[in-house]
Amino acid sequence: MSTPGHNLYGQHMEKHEVEDLLQPSEDTLAPIIHWLESSGVPAQNITHRSHLIIFSVTVAQAENLLNTEFREYHYGNATVVRTLQYSVPFVLRDLVNSIQPTTRFGRPRPQAAMMTEASTESWTESQTADLLGFSGSADSLASADSPKLPFGPKELLTKYNETFCNSTITPACLRGIYNIGDFSANSKGKTLIGISGFDKEGAYLTDISDFLAVTADSGQHINFTYQSINSGVVPTNVMNASGTYTYSMEGNLDSQYAISLARGTPVVYYSTGGEAPFLPDLDVPLPSHNGTDEPYLNLLAVLTGLDNEHLPDVLITSYAEDEQSVPYDYANLVCSSFSLLGARGVSVIFASGDTGVGSACLSNDGKNTQKFTPNFPASCPWVTAVGGTYGVKPEIAAAFTSGGFSNYFPAPSWQLNTMKDYLTKLGDKNKGYFNASGRGYPDVSAQAVQYLVYNQRNPTFGAIISNINNLRRAQGATNLGFLNPWLYTQGSKGFNDITLGHSRGCAGYDMFTGMRTPVIEGASWDAIPGWDPVTGWGTPDFAKLKKMMTNG
């Protein structure tokens, strides 16, 4: 259903078809339900859907159930209840994949602010405000009494100007660079963009309105909704005791750019709370070092429970974390869950990360092996990973953009020929520091430098795919859905190949903790003709993709 030329291409599955496919046998399900109920979990607190069992218990009940002891862990202002290990009855060992929240302390990192290509660290909230000439909290950037950007007159902010766009990226710049033009969604297209929000990130309708007032060349209708999942933060409860908003720059800007570039398409923001398992490394060496939220499964449990007509056609997520910090079983469960969305026509899009070939560059398995450290979920073969570029005519690979080869997931069948060709060109460069048989990423790229604050490559690419879907739906065709088999065959013809620049990393300094890390001399990936682990197949050309994938 995702491979062009196949007789099932575009025939996405319905919710009940996926659930029937994954439904465990009664021999698997019954012992687990019996264990829960016999351990004191009330039957009304147990919900079963397909391959998931969701139950609610007190901490005391969880301790008895899992033969463990939960404690409060504190780091800074963060407090979280966790255990370091748990157990299940031996007879259930092969039936239960994971139980959460239990041992997870870490959380994914939002994509960093890259005001210049040379920058390798994200701006702090105060630095960002000072840089842009605002005072107060970072969220006041978009909601000041007289909204304006300090970059120049309005005509520069609302029209494509190549010179200006080399130093500042606005929605108008992206519309020009990627040939989106004045596209607006067709009301017959019935498409929906979903944006993932984690780590108490919010998005504010007033900020979106102010942003469009400054960057749009004409009035634009906003169709924006907000959904809280698992007690995810909502706009009414994100104001702290001092009367300022909590840090929500990523959520705001993801929403603003998606709405700007997919003009007329409804956008829903999924604010999700929760936790998952964690293995420390140099990037996140302590419990809750950078927070406590990593709620992919909480989000996926809700989305996979929706009927197809309520699913987004594109799901945009601008978060990443070291692959090795996520236990393999959990990463595999999350990754396979993303495939369920792809099977139902959702394009799942993740940023590749902002650590180049790696930041920690040291294994966390006790062997302390020096190696490149790939990012997850970008390394999952069932998502489309977006790398970063900068500049206009030519576009150049951004040095900080993450890419490489997974240590968890092998290269899938649709990527094998591409990986073989690339590795032949690569020769012995970086030999021993990466898994040559792993899934290669990113798959594509977009502009990632010179934004207002956070780079917006992810909503840029996601909006372009949603625009293509809108045209296809209006013509009676289906969503593109899972993109990668198409990208590695026909789809790459609709992209601008990036052959300048390279990524870097493993330079002896952890960009998140400031800790000393291994130095790997010459650690880099080069942008070359064809696919590469810096920019993938390159950046999208909407006009070419429109011609390829629609009837005009």
TrEMBL record:
EC number assigned by the record: 3.4.14.10
Domain Peptidase S53: 168-552
Recorded coiled-coil stretches: none
Keyword Secreted: yes
Cofactor(s) needed by this chain: Ca(2+)
Chain residues that bind Ca(2+): 497-498, 530, 532
Keywords, ordered alphabetically: Calcium, Glycoprotein, Hydrolase, Metal-binding, Protease, Secreted, Serine protease, Signal, Virulence, Zymogen
GO molecular function (one): serine-type endopeptidase activity
Xref: InterPro entries: Peptidase_S8/S53_dom_sf (IPR036852), S53_propep (IPR015366), Sedolisin_dom (IPR030400), Tripeptidyl-peptidase_I (IPR050819)
GO terms for cellular component: extracellular region
One Pfam family it belongs to: Pro-kuma_activ
Entry-linked SUPFAM superfamilies: Protease propeptides/inhibitors (SSF54897), Subtilisin-like (SSF52743)
Cofactor binding mode and count: Binds 1 Ca(2+) ion per subunit.
TM helices/strands, residue ranges: none
The keyword Metal-binding is assigned to this record: yes
GO BP terms, alphabetized: proteolysis
Subcellular location(s) per record: Secreted, Extracellular space
Catalytic activity: Release of an N-terminal tripeptide from a polypeptide
PROSITE patterns named among the record's database cross-references: SEDOLISIN
Biological role: Secreted tripeptidyl-peptidase which degrades proteins at acidic pHs and is involved in virulence.
Protein name in the entry: tripeptidyl-peptidase II
The encoding gene: SED2
